Amino acid sequence: MDDRYEQWQAAERLALTLIEGGLQRMAARTLAVFLFTEQDGVTAGEIATRLEASAGSVSGAIKSLLTVGLIERLPSPGSRREHYRLRDDAWATLFTSQNAVIQAMLQAAAVGIAVTAEDDPAHQRLARMYAFYEFLLGELPALLHRWHQRTG
Prior knowledge:
By secondary structure, this protein is mostly helical.
């Protein structure tokens, strides 16, 4: 059996696992391309071709992966196309305060807290949500420090 075929099968299985874990289908498949590519960087067009997907769906997936910090834009002098790659620190970045999703959750909870009365059950749930994300952000630096010590 062809090694590339086996790799692509593994990539598709990984994408299914990510989908089951809550990632949107196209973002999961796009992330699998980044994980399994042999290239330093890929364009949206290359991803669309590989996945046999529309440019629009790949564009949305790339935006989603950029937002959570898993991928980054590469400098591409002389090219009209954007090039992207998986960040070296992708998994750590996913759980840092740089993560736009964590920041958005904190902000959304804060807005909800501001517009609900203290005795309202919604206020209490939102306050608990806010407290969780605030706690998470407070714990992450030590956790990430240990991770960086482990990985050099």
